[in-house]
Design a protein that fits this description.
- The structure holds two protein chains of two kinds.
- Helices cover 46% and strands 16% of the residues of chain A.
- Chain A is α/β, with parallel strands linked by helices.
- In chain A, helix 2 links the parallel strand 2 and strand 3.
- Chain B starts with 16 loop residues before the first strand and ends in a 14-residue tail after the last helix.
- In chain B, strand 2, helix 3 and strand 3 form a beta-alpha-beta unit.
- By secondary structure, chain B is of the alpha/beta class.
- The relative contact order of chain B is 0.12.
- Chains A and B meet through helix 2 and strand 3 of A and helix 12 and helix 14 of B.
């Protein structure tokens, strides 16, 4: 059974929601968790919920890296921080993967510091699953966007590696046989977007192991044209936050409308089933976090505001990725094109 | 001339140990969430009945550990199931090789014949009366261990019993509590009569609650340190070892039953033991010999949380904050603090089908 290290002190609702999420996992799956953080605080939460102690171990430490802390300095100096201790535990082989809802920058840097890059990989990528419209029956309702912030600026070779890593992840975790890979750009033509993107386009098109569908534009992000979309970190982060922001604004407006007029409220009530489906589709808690790909060990980064359900899903995704040997799949994909 | 025959002073035998076990969900993995499951349980053959992992080994280990010490031990079962399933239960206990001295069932047919339909689901009065009746038949100096589960009212029934025989519950108070729980007047009178005769000795050492439903442990804080909620019978055995009622070898035996018969891994057992320490049910020091023996026998794996000695040191440093610190590491209090039964009954949820009976505070 995989052992998943969980940073119990990272995130806006830590340790309560993190511990509750782990407790849920212990009751419904055979996954074992190593919770890292203040033992007394973790135990206090644990004793107030249903859990299975056989599947939970606690690694005590007192330090925390806050959401507002400067990541580089924090990872370097706070050796007793839960994220750092958890990453070290994974690197030492005491756990198979790491889940954290803490500071994203610190997660990336802790991975870089303690985990080994897969042979041949130049840069790691933070990938994010997000909901999109499907084009054919049976198509996964989630797409993978990478990088969304680990590597701000990229070279063409790195974008190609992101494509290989994303495709490997989609094959293993989303079970898409031959995932369609797109390059996020400002136009469909191969020469668009400047030298780096044009070079990346050319290399991806020439790769026989990748099902490359060409450039995809912003409006294609939420359509089913590609299962894996590759871009540099700055662009990916802006795109991801835009999708999240639109979803939030939509719900704020709907709530406002419902408060204003009875007729609108009734109208929304009539649409409630459809809205609920839309809410389920855009609910980040269902997706189980974003993997940091490119290392021999896995880190699944949850949303900072993650509640127990989101943490539980992230732990399940981490266990699935370990069972499906995602790092091995990535290593094989990289080795095949070298 | 005949010499004077000196009478050697007789050695005092250790006080007998009585173990009283609930049956469904404590010994047996009975499923009766639905009518279909209830019917299936009623007609199940002995060989189809499934016991909770480790329970049979624990009962046997308790008996053998007591016999080694020269302490008489008696094992009784008490069940709210009807006597009609008695033969299957007895056959199951025989199959498991579990020695016992008595078994009591609830005569549900009698309640139906008398039209006492409320009594069919009311077990507090029935179990309390049977426990008290059993106490009256036991040697007065006997100490007791009680075993139940978190499905119905075992923690409440056992606590009422322990306090009644320990003279910590006045008759009027017990009567009002039984009324509040819904015990009928006739049974209440019978219980009060029995309690008056059985009172006098603080005999209950511990009440073990098998968290079959995974009820949050904090729910049982109101019952005080006498009630010990455990998630598996390896944990129960470890606590009994800390109390001196089992030897490390007995715990190994229970652990083996779990690893060989219920696919437990050494790491899961290590996690279970760590959970006991974190909950303050055993002290890190008290487990030292046990851990060494379990590790030597290969039933306890290294914990992923790191070396045990390092964690024990860290735990010592954090001791002032532990809520149940020393609950078992120290000898049980001679006169435990009285329980707040009103608060306990407030916590007891109304019977809602499928809902947990106890709710977290």
């Amino acid at each position: 059974m995989p052992i998943i290290a969980v940073d119990a002190m990272g995130g806006d609702h830590a340790p309560q929601e993190i511990v509750k999420g782990v407790a849920q996992v212990s009751l419904t799956t055979d996954i074992e968790c190593l919770m890292v953080g203040d033992e007394r605080r973790i135990q206090e939460v644990l004793e107030g919920v249903s859990y299975n102690p056989e599947q939970i171990a606690i690694l005590h430490c007192t330090g925390v890296i806050g959401m507002a802390d400067e990541p580089r300095e924090a990872v370097r100096t706070r050796r007793d921080a839960s994220l750092v201790v958890a990453a070290r535990a994974v690197a030492e082989g005491r756990a198979d993967a790491l889940v954290s809802a803490g500071n994203t920058g610190a997660c990336v840097l802790a991975s870089a510091r303690f985990f080994r890059l897969v042979k041949g990989i130049r840069r790691a990528a933070l990938a994010s699953v997000y909901p999109r419209h499907t084009e054919y029956p049976g198509q996964d309702r989630l797409a993978l966007l990478l990088d969304v912030g680990a590597t701000v600026r990229c070279e063409a070779a790195e974008l190609v590696q992101f494509a290989l890593m994303g495709a490997a992840y989609a094959r293993r975790v989303s079970k898409v046989g031959s995932p369609r890979v797109g390059l996020l750009n400002m136009g469909a033509e191969p020469i668009k977007g400047g030298e780096t993107l044009a070079q990346a386009h050319g290399r991806l098109e020439a790769l026989p192991t990748i099902n490359f569908v060409g450039n995809v534009e912003g409006n294609d992000l939420v359509r089913g044209r590609a299962d894996v979309i590759v871009c540099e970190g700055l662009l990916g982060n802006v795109a991801l936050k835009l999708i999240e922001g639109i979803s939030e604004v939509f719900y704020d407006l709907a709530t406002l409308a419902a408060e204003r007029r009875l007729a609108w409220r009734l109208g929304l009530r009539l649409l409630s089933q459809g809205l609920e489906r839309l809410r389920e589709l855009t609910d980040y808690t269902q997706y189980g976090g974003s993997p940091i790909l490119g290392f021999e060990q896995l880190l699944i980064k949850c949303h900072g505001r993650s509640t127990a359900g989101a943490v539980a899903n992230a732990v399940k995704v981490a266990a699935k990725a370990v069972r499906d040997r995602v790092p091995r799949e990535i290593a094989d994909a990289i080795a095949a094109v070298r | 001339m005949r010499g004077i025959r000196l009478r050697r002073p007789r050695e005092r035998a250790p006080a007998p140990l009585i173990c009283r076990w609930d049956l469904d969900k404590t010994y047996l993995r009975s499923e009766f969430d639905s009518l279909r499951q209830l019917l299936r349980t009623a007609f199940e053959r002995a060989e189809d009945k499934v016991d909770v992992p480790g329970v049979a080994e624990l009962i046997k280990a308790l008996r053998q550990a007591s016999e080694r010490l020269g302490r008489p031990v008696r094992t009784y079962f008490i069940s709210a199931s009807p006597p009609q399933i008695g033969s299957a239960i007895r056959a199951k206990l025989a199959l498991d090789g579990v020695p016992y001295d008595g078994i009591v069932f609830k005569d549900q047919l009698r309640h139906i014949r008398r039209g006492q339909f409320r009594s069919l689901r009311e077990h507090v009065g029935f179990k309390l009366a049977e426990l008290l009746r059993g106490r009256l038949e036991a040697p007065p100096e006997a100490r007791e261990l009680l075993f139940g589960d978190d499905w119905e009212s075992d923690p409440l029934i056992y606590s009422l019993y322990a306090d009644a025989i320990g003279s910590r519950l006045e008759t009027r108070r017990l009567a009002s509590l039984l009324r509040r729980v819904g015990v009928d007047a006739e049974l209440t009178d019978r219980v009060l009569g029995l309690a008056a005769r059985a009172a006098g000795r603080d005999a209950v050492v511990r009440i073990f609650i098998n968290l079959e439903r995974r009820t949050p442990p904090s729910v049982f804080q109101l019952f005080g340190p006498r009630v010990v909620p455990t998630f598996n019978y390896f944990q129960t055995a470890a606590v009994l070892e800390a109390l001196g009622l089992l030897a490390p070898a007995d715990v190994v035996r229970v652990a083996r039953a779990l690893t060989e018969g219920a696919s437990y891994t050494p790491r899961r057992l290590a996690n279970s033991l760590d959970d006991l320490v974190r909950r303050g049910l055993v002290s890190p020091g008290a487990t030292r010999t046990l851990v060494a023996r379990l590790a030597a026998e290969g039933v306890l794996g290294p914990s992923v949380a790191g070396p045990r000695w390092r964690r024990a040191l860290a735990a010592l440093g954090r001791l002032p904050g532990r809520r149940r610190r020393g609950a078992l590491a120290a000898p049980p209090p001679q006169r435990p603090a009285p329980l707040d039964y009103d608060a306990i009954l407030d916590q007891l949820r109304p019977r809602v089908r499928g809902a947990a009976l106890w709710e977290a505070p």
